[in-house]
Specification:
The chain is 53% helix and 2% strand. By secondary structure, the protein is an all-alpha fold. The chain has a single domain, classed as Lysozyme (Orthogonal Bundle). The longest helix is centred in the first third of the chain and has 26 residues.
């Protein structure tokens, strides 16, 4: 009985944050998700700027992945592991020294697997089965980001000082 409860607890810890996030998805009008707090948006700004600085391809889609995987950066389990992408290894969810390290790991992962740059990134994520859900890409598309996260990269670059 104790062994069974241990397994149930592990499964609950592993899947409950994602299940609750998916349930909350349907509670919003027209199945769209919006940022909820100023502090979250501030951290989202910082994360997005870091995605740009690391030259992550399709940073707006990758930011949507972060939102889904961490529940708007509020998942205590993944955030304490600094794992913005829910990366796993044979021992479970990976831990990183900082969230920036998880972005750098994603960059290496993306550079290794996203080789056909003309391929639609949502199609790529579905093709490689990034998530177990077959509707993962459609779910990502429904997340509405503020316009500043969907602008071309050049808008985020600092202008060079004039001489």
């Amino acid at each position: 009985m104790i062994y069974s409860n241990t397994i149930k607890w592990r499964l609950l810890k592993q899947y409950l944050p994602k299940v609750l996030f998916f349930i909350s998805f349907f509670a919003f009008p027209q199945n769209k998700i919006y940022a909820q707090t100023t502090s979250t948006r501030t951290l989202l700004d910082t994360v997005y700027e870091y995605l740009i600085a690391q030259e992550i391809k399709h940073p707006d889609i990758v930011l949507r992945q972060i939102i889904v995987e961490t529940g708007w950066l509020k998942s205590p389990y993944l955030m304490t592991k600094h794992n913005l992408f829910a990366f796993r290894n044979s021992k479970g969810y990976m831990s990183f020294p900082t969230w920036q390290h998880s972005v750098e790991f994603y960059k290496k992962w993306q550079s290794t697997y996203y080789l056909m740059e003309k391929e639609d990134y949502y199609t790529f994520l579905t093709r490689i089965k990034y998530a177990s859900s077959p509707t993962y890409a459609a779910y990502l598309k429904k997340i509405q980001l503020p316009q500043k996260f969907t602008q071309p990269k050049a808008l985020f670059e600092m202008p060079s000082p004039e001489h």
